[in-house]
Design brief:
The chain is an all-alpha fold and 285 residues long. It contains 14 helices and no strands.
Length: 285
């Protein structure tokens, strides 16, 4: 009876694991530094500095949780945080609706010039966002949308990438499912609502997540179209606070933690749907 040969030790897998572990450590190190600094006193930020998380000087002796309260009050983060939530949620809803309807039209509705229009839409992805800045400012200003919610959200709700992402997924849905609903007398809108949407929860969740993150992290556009604190988001407030806080590094880092905390929490909640959507969307095709 032949003995089964022993599987050789896979050095390649070990090296890959070591490289990934090192990359993860390098990636997470700035976040650890930010959190540890946000919990230090002003004196500790000046005297106890170390780039290594294994050093005692990297961590605070006694966590100063009051730094977050001080940063929230001094920088008026309450107003900016509320503005960011409203802007990000509004942008997310508008983007999901427009992207889903557009993707359905390009995928399941046959009309003259469909492929040409879709090619033109995809060609806009190669244009840098900075090129759109001045034309968008002129358009928003002509409509009287400066320093308004409409001016902060509407120019970016039609995303070529999100339309492409959803179209790739919709192409995988068999046309027979839609034809069955048509036999029952359903039109395109009803077929989209009753057939396509229930099957597209993962990619729609991904579009919602990415659009929310993009709006939450936006800085250049809010700086241009907002005047005063009425509609300024958290990114603009954090930028102003970093300048005003001066040498108080612990408050600046506390403000940065406040700004990124919702994004990190949202990702932990959405990572399963996000991974599933990327796997099933057919982007690689």
């Amino acid at each position: 009876m032949a003995t089964r040969p022993r599987s050789p030790f896979r050095w390649g897998r070990l090296v890959l694991f070591a490289v990934l572990l090192a990359g993860a450590g390098i990636t997470i190190l700035p976040f650890l530094f930010m959190i540890s600094t946000s919990l230090k006193t002003l004196a500790e930020t000046l005297t106890r500095i170390s780039p290594s998380p294994f050093s005692p000087d990297f961590w605070p002796r006694t966590p100063q949780w009051s730094n977050y309260r001080d940063a929230w009050k001094v920088a008026s983060f309450g107003i900016f945080f509320k503005n960011s939530v409203i802007i990000a949620v509004t942008t997310m809803v508008e983007t999901v609706v427009i992207s889903a309807l557009s993707a359905y039209a390009f995928s399941k509705i046959r009309f003259a010039g469909r492929e040409i229009l879709f090619t033109i839409l995809l060609s806009t992805l190669i244009i840098p966002e900075t090129v759109y800045l001045i034309p968008n400012v002129i358009i928003v200003s002509s409509f009287g949308w400066m320093n308004t919610l409409a001016g902060l959200t509407l120019p970016f709700v039609a995303s070529a990438f999100f339309i492409f992402l959803l179209r790739q997924f919709f192409n995988q849905v068999p046309n027979e499912l839609l034809e069955v609903s048509r036999i029952d007398g359903a039109g395109h809108l009803r077929s989209f609502r009753s057939v396509m949407l229930p099957l597209s929860k993962a990619p729609l969740f991904t579009v919602a997540f990415l659009s929310f993150i993009g709006s939450w992290n936006a800085l250049q556009w809010p700086l241009v179209v907002t005047q005063g604190s009425k509609w300024r988001p958290l990114t603009v407030g954090l930028t102003m606070f970093i300048t005003e806080a001066g040498p108080e590094m612990q408050l600046r880092m506390a403000g940065a933690v406040i700004a990124i905390a919702p994004v990190i929490l949202l990702y932990f909640v959405a990572q399963k749907q996000f991974t599933e959507a990327i796997t099933r969307s057919g982007i690689k095709a």
